[in-house]
Design goal:
The protein is mainly alpha-helical and 256 residues long. The chain is built from 10 helices and 5 strands. The protein has a 3-stranded antiparallel sheet with strand order 2-1-3, with no helix packed on it. Strands 4-5 form a two-stranded parallel ribbon. The longest helix has 26 residues.
Length: 256
Amino acid sequence: MSISTKKAKSSRSFATRKYPVFGTGVYNEKNPPKTVTSSPFYWWFKFLQLNEEYAKSVRKQRTKVSKQVVEDFGKVDKTDFKSWWKTHSHLFTEPETDYSLIIASNNEELAPFDSKDVINLVVPLHWTNVGIKRRVSQLIDKLVPKAPKGQPIRPSDAPYRLGRKWSIIAFEAAYNIYMLKKQSDLGVSQGKKKIPWADIALMANLPIAVRMNQGKHSYDKIAVRNALTAIAIRHFDRAEDFIKAAATNEFPSKIN
């Protein structure tokens, strides 16, 4: 039996397996499920909401943000991620292909034998289930290289694509630090006391901040505060980079 890919348009796909999955329950934007927050597309949206230049461009004010990006992404300030994703997910999907996985039943359904994009595979059905799966897995590993963790499965041709290596942990930490710093700045403008960077790191529950503050090691308190300050500032700077990149077609930044 020949398993082939018939010339028929397949369903659209993403260049990463980390696309958001909302489940069947009621979606809560303030407490989204992990299957959503583990997607880089969720953080793309969240950082875009923080981009003041993008917001100005939406209001028809002159900025350096591409008009095409604004036209494609639309308003993001007063909507939740699930609602926005329903009408914009197509921007992040790969172009439809001419092939889909089928069992060929005639010569017309066979793929060209010299194709670099598709293969015809003969599967001996008298082999064991485990043996077939093992052999197919070996062939696929040779033909389709595995992507490193945090990298796209393959180079993306989507209109809006993931760029350099990304980390959900880095996105979340940067976002939390940024929001806490803005909250501190707002408090200062209202006459409240400024929150030190080290305390912001603790408030954000950064793993390293929690470990250093638990007292399980004999850290010097001043050294700990200095380290937490540096960590918080580093995450804040990353957040600013993520915010800027969110208003482009490649996030968190272009691949060098």
